[in-house]
Specification:
The complex is a heterodimer of chains A (about 100) and B (about 325). By secondary structure, chain A is an alpha+beta fold. Chain A is about 20% helix and about 10% strand. In chain A, the strands form 2 sheets. A two-stranded antiparallel ribbon of chain A has the order 1-4. In chain A, strands 2-3 form a two-stranded antiparallel ribbon. The longest helix of chain A is centred in the last third of the chain and has 10 residues. The radius of gyration of chain A is 16 Å and the shape is elongated. Chain B has 2 domains: about 160 residues, Rossmann fold (3-Layer(aba) Sandwich); about 150 residues, no CATH class. Chain B has 14 helices and 6 strands. A 4-stranded mixed β-sheet of chain B has the order 1-2-4-3. Chain B has a two-stranded parallel ribbon with strand order 5-6. The longest helix of chain B is centred in the C-terminal third of the chain and has 34 residues.
Amino acid sequence: MFDSYQSNTLQYDPIKCINCGMCINVCPHAVFAPGDKKVEMVNYLDCMECGACQMNCPTGAITVESGVGCAYAMFYAALTGKDEPTCGSDEGGCC
Amino acid sequence: MSGTIFTFTTPPVNHTTNQLTLSDHRDHLLARLGINRSGYIVEPGLHLLGSPTPDSPVFVTANYTLSFDALRSSLDDNMNCYILVLDTKGINVWCAAGKGTFGTGELVNRINITGLADKVNHRVLILPQLGATGVSAHEVKKLTGFRVEYGPVRAADLPEYLKTHKATPGMRRVQFNMIERLVLFPVELVKLLPYLLVISVILYFTSGPLAAAGAAAAVLAGVLLFPLLLPFIPTKDFSSKGFILGGLVAMPFAFASYQYGIDTTQSLQITRAIAPMMVMPPVTAFLSLNFTGSTTFTSVTGVRKEISTYTRLMVLMFASGVVTLIILAILRITGW
């Protein structure tokens, strides 16, 4: 109850991990931490789905459905049936 | 003998400094107030700070004045470097990266346009960490030969970072402290003020000064009190936090409305007291939910779930509250 943030779309496949550590560098919420042979996902619930890890994982070991997460944009999309506008858009954008 | 012929073969070069002028500070203030919001644009391309040599470092940033100024003003006085400004349409690094304009494509494009590879001996670019949402380091390497190095989240940490080129865990984490939350307030208020004025004037004449003040209180609770008290309001969801806060703010209005016109029937008094409790909390809750777009930690999945959980309740409460207000206004105007 009253917690909509108990799950997210972040998925990590350690089998593909080559331990380059890029995900540790780019994550703003310390979701990943160094491990012995593979990076470890240690703070799954802190993920805000920004998508930086997926973008910078050279082996595709991480997937996440990223988005700006702007409620205005989602209301706009829900009301007009159009795609969610992103920041700086000409129409319906808030920021 | 003919006169001297001037030829310009090199693209224009922009010089910059690490000093912020009075007019820079004025721009920052106006940007924070949301005045002429899309007007704080830096020219995309290569900017020279100090007197860089081919061995000098290259920093990459967005062409939003606040991003560019945060970078250059954080660099030491004896720094000589290149600043590669990407065309992000005047949007800051993180938002532009989320949209993809601060992205692999624009970075590769800007490296090529500026002829950066001929200007420097090395192949390293220092990017702000938050740019990583739009930039794929291994793609950039593959396409241009440049290695992307993600610096700290905050430009202010750059001098410390540059000593070792290793970021501490603290430099890698975003924050959302009181000041970071408060600077967002003026933009929100300026955006809502025209609507609030119109609604308050209408309420003033239909329901009285108390209702007009109630509208202002509900909005201020959403855009000022909520960001201020965010970590301290119980529950995790922004909507439920907003309902709690809006309910608390509405209570004095309910009490005052109950007292107002004490000579009428008790059922009318109770109806008057219920109206602010119906109208104000959903307004505050809605504004609170919208604040998720400004935070540094809410996920799209969570916000989407909040919207599906709370929208119906917000609309229902607000609509029945407005109907109550209309009935009360009719009774008031007809002299009941």
